[in-house]
Design goal:
With 92 residues, this protein is an all-alpha fold. The chain contains five helices and no strands. The longest helix is centred in the N-terminal third of the chain and has 13 residues. The N and C termini lie far apart (30 Å).
Length: 92
């Protein structure tokens, strides 16, 4: 809900509270927050949150790839989007 309303600080705060409480997060949680940042035009924080996701050992699923590629393109980051596509094609 916070992400849809553009309240990313509250969304990330909820994520942090989940981590502190030992609630297991999944790729959907990360993808939702990443999408919220992109929709707000904040590709830097979206990519930082992507790094958190990958550092947790999570793999990108097709939904995450779609959100990231669409978000990067929508924020004028075409080179970065192309790099993600190339990584996806290589199986990473």
């Amino acid at each position: 809900g916070f992400c849809k309303q553009g309240e990313m600080e509250r969304a990330e705060g909820l994520y942090m509270r989940m981590q502190e409480d030992g609630v297991e997060t999944n790729a959907l949680v990360y993808t939702t927050v990443i999408d919220g940042y992109f929709k707000r035009g904040d590709s830097d924080n979206a990519m930082k949150f992507l790094a958190k996701m990958l550092n947790q050992g999570m793999r990108l699923d097709i939904a995450a790839y779609g959100v990231i590629i669409s978000g990067l393109c929508g924020n004028g980051k075409l080179k970065e989007a192309e790099e993600i596509v190339q990584g996806m094609e290589k199986g990473g």
